Amino acid sequence: MSNVWETNMNKTRVCVVGYGVIGQRLADGVALQEDMELVGVVDVAPTLAVRALHESGMPYKLFLVDPERKPEFGELGIPTSGTFDELLEEIDVALDATPGGIGAKNKELYIAHGVKAIFQGGEKNEIADAFFHGYANYEKGLGQDFLKLTSCNTTGLIRVVDAIDREVGVEKVAITIIRRVADPGDTHRGLVDLLKVEPVPNHQAVDLMTIMPHVDATGFLVHTPVTHGHIISIVATPKKPFKKDTLIEICRAHPRIRVVRIADGFNSNTALFRYARNLGNKRGDMYEIALWEECIGMSGDDILFAINIPQEAVTIPETIDGVRACMEMQTDWLDAVGLTNQYLSLRANT
Amino acid sequence: MSNVWETNMNKTRVCVVGYGVIGQRLADGVALQEDMELVGVVDVAPTLAVRALHESGMPYKLFLVDPERKPEFGELGIPTSGTFDELLEEIDVALDATPGGIGAKNKELYIAHGVKAIFQGGEKNEIADAFFHGYANYEKGLGQDFLKLTSCNTTGLIRVVDAIDREVGVEKVAITIIRRVADPGDTHRGLVDLLKVEPVPNHQAVDLMTIMPHVDATGFLVHTPVTHGHIISIVATPKKPFKKDTLIEICRAHPRIRVVRIADGFNSNTALFRYARNLGNKRGDMYEIALWEECIGMSGDDILFAINIPQEAVTIPETIDGVRACMEMQTDWLDAVGLTNQYLSLRANT
Amino acid sequence: MSNVWETNMNKTRVCVVGYGVIGQRLADGVALQEDMELVGVVDVAPTLAVRALHESGMPYKLFLVDPERKPEFGELGIPTSGTFDELLEEIDVALDATPGGIGAKNKELYIAHGVKAIFQGGEKNEIADAFFHGYANYEKGLGQDFLKLTSCNTTGLIRVVDAIDREVGVEKVAITIIRRVADPGDTHRGLVDLLKVEPVPNHQAVDLMTIMPHVDATGFLVHTPVTHGHIISIVATPKKPFKKDTLIEICRAHPRIRVVRIADGFNSNTALFRYARNLGNKRGDMYEIALWEECIGMSGDDILFAINIPQEAVTIPETIDGVRACMEMQTDWLDAVGLTNQYLSLRANT
Amino acid sequence: MSNVWETNMNKTRVCVVGYGVIGQRLADGVALQEDMELVGVVDVAPTLAVRALHESGMPYKLFLVDPERKPEFGELGIPTSGTFDELLEEIDVALDATPGGIGAKNKELYIAHGVKAIFQGGEKNEIADAFFHGYANYEKGLGQDFLKLTSCNTTGLIRVVDAIDREVGVEKVAITIIRRVADPGDTHRGLVDLLKVEPVPNHQAVDLMTIMPHVDATGFLVHTPVTHGHIISIVATPKKPFKKDTLIEICRAHPRIRVVRIADGFNSNTALFRYARNLGNKRGDMYEIALWEECIGMSGDDILFAINIPQEAVTIPETIDGVRACMEMQTDWLDAVGLTNQYLSLRANT
To answer: Where are any strands of DSSP class E within chain D?
Structure first.
């Protein structure tokens, strides 16, 4: 182990807490970062995700929240490497992907062990020192102990609004979120033959204003009975004249945005998922949001366009940016996101 | 029969061509108009709709497109009252609710028989002398021989945009249509776990500009796997300052708009359908679009709000307005829509 | 009131407790029984169902569970006629259609007021003196104080199994239930793009054996993301040779079974719902289960066939039969179900 | 190339015609067979599947049906390696995965080039010399020029029925297929809130009898609005007494059947898909059908159980078996399926 330790000497030591839909993908993403070490993942029970980890050969070490449940794992032949407490002694940053509310309890542990933590969007803003997005406010996360990531919709939305904002300035946005209501395989929630509406403004618009306080935002959200990606329709008021082609150029240049065409067959959120499966991406995941080239129009001087949010994987890059920020691995945001992108093989379209 | 004839002497004689989803509802709506006579309905085959007409006691006379198929109806015990040609001799206006494209062929028959006709949104604009909406451009339909109604989404959309326009003026609108992809029971189309996108602008925005040429419109449309109503998110730029409460007042005063609250349980398109079923409305239909009180927000001086379009029945009132216009039964639009509303029991909320 | 009282003197006085999906339909069904009086319905809050009752002119009197909430109803202009306790003084039988578990609490009230009650399938069997089905074991309900109805699937399943059993005897059945997972408008449960399986045997098979102890039954259940009716596939082993045509004849002769054909357009559960809407049935409801004529086949001497269960309304007739049984209005089951059918306009197909 | 050629000298040269849902998976499966060479894949247009092949680095050579469309591929930078005709000169067996009906036309090409071909279930039986299933009738395919594979449902169904048949004999089966109506991403077909029924018997029961003529089969099929796997409920009449545990043992021993438990979280077809994604399987595919341990019950001496069919990948192993049979690579079926399984990493559960 000492050899590995030496090799890993300068690496930031990371663990993932909660090995569910987001946790599994965080682990995969961190494992690809050459300047980070994924020390282990933590879960409470031999869930299907844990069994899949086992069946695929334990690429990541597993630690247990509750040591008393160790026999349960043993009977299934699933090796464990210690307890949550032990793991926290070995790491610098915990990526907390537990169900909403658990993170707040875990925070006490992180404090006790003197480690930093990054929480997902399900926790309340108060849990963290900064509400964070890798592109829009990297500097707010520098050196902080506790960050909270934006949720999946907000993460993708801010990517594109921030990109426009850096180019021409954004005065205001009015968004309509057509939300997938469950992840593939979820049985604890779902809707049948129903579009469920939420009051205006949705939390994503409010969150955007927290991260980008100079932009006025409001929005409407409708839950729809699908699983493979949210779609957001955005009406943006730019500060300078702005055209369709400029939006396409900005998005093509963005390593975390993919510009696609209905004419090529990308006619739905699920077409993007199918494409990612066919690419051989693990789990059929995609880190990039997509912009539909044919779904852009002018409304006077405002611009209307639509993006796709692959909810299972979209927050992974920005969470990894968060590790860079809180550990001050890079102080310049462009250096930070650039490295994250490089290790995740995210490139600008040319 | 002469007695009935006398009673009906001054009534406009109407027939419905194509007894499908829309045709059945047009028949029911016309039958309620005390100054119109529903002479009969026409169809080509003993469809389930025709069988339901029979099982419910033939409240409307049935005429056949193809007399050679009469024995088919006879075997089922379904009485028929003559042919399409014979029916056209007895009527003033044909409401054509046949599948897209058939109306264009029927038009030759209408010309030959010297009757007027109103086509539904599936036909091309060129088929008609005027593209018609009872509230927005009633006068364009006056005395015309051939009208084309706006489609279901456009009909509902124009109701509310026209209402705002009459109050404060509308400069532009940017809409996002969350479209139900099939009617309940349809098996010839459908989507599973998929949000299908269409290029911007959608035809509804273009149609709105045809009917209301002084308003700039664009929009994005997403097909969703549901059946009980479209939802439209609208960002409107008014010509004068305009607030949320004013929108609510305008809509409350509109007999064809129902203002509802999520807090009361109206949390989805299907909640509205369920409510209409519980009201005892025939087929669980609703003529009114709905505006969600909690789904209104300001985006700077623009206003964002959302409406529900009950696609099966929403165009019925405006089609009946069309009968009034083309027959010049009323020359003032307020008189016309007022009578249609009265006979359909549509009232302003107070 | 005394006049009405005289007219109603010999009528069985019934109330409905819980005015939800089932409660509304029980009220409608009881109101049609000329030998019963629907004294009132009870609910706890101004739900959408209660608001629809109000908007449709209060055809039924409304009583309140909690008198302290009366002002809430008053503000909405919804008239109330007293309390649950007061109502229980005026009735003979309560039809309890409250959510599962509440009925057990209400039972104490029924005992205190000396009234009989009929519970729906959501309660435990122990709540009742008899687990009841109008056709299969009417005599078990005679004079009992507390009956529990079979659930929607079991009610429909037993209809057809009992009908075969009376003709040729049934040795055993193996069923596959393709279950609709939510009612139209439900947001508290649902599934997206998922077939959820349940352990064998399902409760419906077990329930069938409770009602028909001489039949061996097992079954498998799959929840599917639809709302308009369950479909059950049945493999039945008859005691005597039995053919497809005999099954069709038996079902045609049964007032609560409708024999339909795919060839006519009845190609789905939702086609049946659409047909019921087009018939003008209130809420688009159907009391009858359907048997598909083309979906019958022989498996050696066993017979395979499929039925549709319209879950919202299917238990209404058998619940009304229960009133007849527990009040001993008729002692012969054929007299009882015959009257229920007559008042609900249910007739054999000829 | 000569070096490669030498290495490949004794390998069976295979191509895949039609690079769609099945074709892509056939290519992946053949590429894993160490005694086969995937010479190339053929398609007609730069579909999304072809673009994904390109974006993932062209692991397989692409040939064009229509040489005139080569510039279209060139503009996208997609390299092509020749024409369909040229490819047919280089191969021994074509795996035809074109849309139903095209295969019949391609057959003339295969004859002209003197190559063998294996067609998928969409073609008519007459196209082939034998209707083939690797486990149930391997010997029927030996040395034949043209094989037709069973469809996805039939392939999985026969796996388990054949396994039982080899153990205790099967007299008859009555099946209920709960069919996924579309693949993820399909927009050309789909259903919303609807269970669509088909006449009895379904083609899968008929096909089973063609492959296993000594078994009597019938069945009912319902299309359901899901995408991630069919579920089949089977009532089987064994020739000898047979118990639940024996079925579990047989299935555990079968490399192409996975025994799963609801209690572990495998509560749906989509849970299996999610698990396969989490395993890191390419595209989240699974070759194995699944048997639910809790979904087995006795119906007298008959046995009721349920299996899951992952429709996108299930036919790949048996198609590869077909290559072995028609090329007489192995004359013993156990040797053949054993090698296919070994190269696909399919193992019995122990």
So the answer is: 12-17, 36-43, 62-64, 93-96, 116-119, 130-132, 146-149, 170-180, 196-197, 216-224, 230-238, 257-260, 289-299, 302-309
pLDDT at A269: 98
Length of chain B: 350
pLDDT tens string A79-132: 999 999 999 999 999 999 999 889 999 999 999 999 999 999 888 989 999 999
> What is the spatial distance between Cα D297 and Cα C327, in angstroms, rounded to a whole number?
40
Neighbours of D, requiring at least 3 CB pairs below 8 Å, are: A, B, C
| Residue B250, pLDDT above cutoff 70 | yes
| Closest by Cβ to D273, choosing from A24, A185, A271 | A185
Q: Which residue has the tokens 């005892």?
A: B280
Residues 32-61, chain C: which have Cβ within 8 Å of D?
Answer: none
C-alpha distances (whole Å) from B181 to each of A261, B21, D181 are 21, 14, 16
Could B265 and C47 be called an inter-chain contact, meaning their C-beta atoms sit closer than 8 Å?
A: yes
Q: Is the pLDDT of residue A8 over 80?
A: no
Percent helix, strand and coil across chain D, each to the nearest 5 = 40, 25, 35
In the predicted model, is pLDDT for residue C8 greater than 80?
no
* B327, C106, D258, D311, D317 from D286: Cα distances, Å: 65, 51, 10, 9, 11
Quickly count: other Cβ atoms within 10 Å of residue C177's Cβ. 27
User: Which residues on C lie below 8 Å from B48 (Cβ)?
Assistant: 264-266, 271, 274-275, 278
Q: How far apart are CA B219 and CA B158, in angstroms?
A: 14
Rg of chain D over all Cα atoms, to the nearest angstrom: 20
ipTM of the complex: 0.95
Contact D296, D247 (CB under 8 A): yes
pTM of the shown model: 0.96
What would the pLDDT profile of A150-186 be if each residue is shown by its tens digit?
999 999 999 999 999 999 999 999 999 999 999 999 9
Encoding tokens for residue D154? Answer: 């039939």
* From A196, A229, A294, residue closest to B199, measured CB to CB: A294
Cβ within 8 Å, pair C191-A192: yes
Taking each helix axis from N to C terminus, what angle separates B48-55 and B21-31, rounded to the nearest 10 degrees? Answer: 30
B204-221: burial string, b at 16+ Cβ within 10 Å, e else: bbebbbebbeebbbbbbb
Q: How much is the CA Rg of chain B, to the nearest whole Å?
A: 20
For helices B152-168 and B203-211, the axis angle rounded to 10 degrees is 50
The three-state secondary structure class of C281 is coil
Q: Number of residue pairs across C and D with CB atoms under 8 Å?
A: 163
D191 touches chain B (CB under 8 A): yes
Say if B294 is an interface residue toward chain C (CB within 8 Å): no
What is the model's pLDDT at position A69? Answer: 96
Q: What Cα–Cα distance (Å) separates residue D298 from each residue in C145, C219, C237, D169?
A: 36, 9, 14, 16
Instruction: Work out the average pLDDT over D71-90.
Output: 97
**Is the model's pLDDT at B155 over the cut of 70?**
yes
Check CB contact under 8 Å for D306 and C200: yes
Gyration radius of chain A's alpha carbons? 20
Amino acid at C172: K
D231/C305 CB distance under 8 A: no
C-alpha closest to that of C158 among C176, C135, C179: C135
pLDDT in tens, C251-304: 999 999 999 999 999 999 999 999 999 999 999 999 999 999 999 999 999 999
Q: In 3-state terms, what secondary structure has residue B36?
A: strand
The dihedral over CA atoms of D2, D4, D9, D12, expressed in degrees to the nearest 10, equals -130
Which of D337, D319, D273, D326 shows the shortest CA–CA distance to D18?
D319
- Split at pLDDT 50, 70, 90, the class of B8 is low
State in Å, rounded, how far the first CA of chain B is from the last one: 43
DSSP β-ladder status, C196-198 and A93-96: unpaired
Q: What is the mean pLDDT of residues D116-126?
A: 92
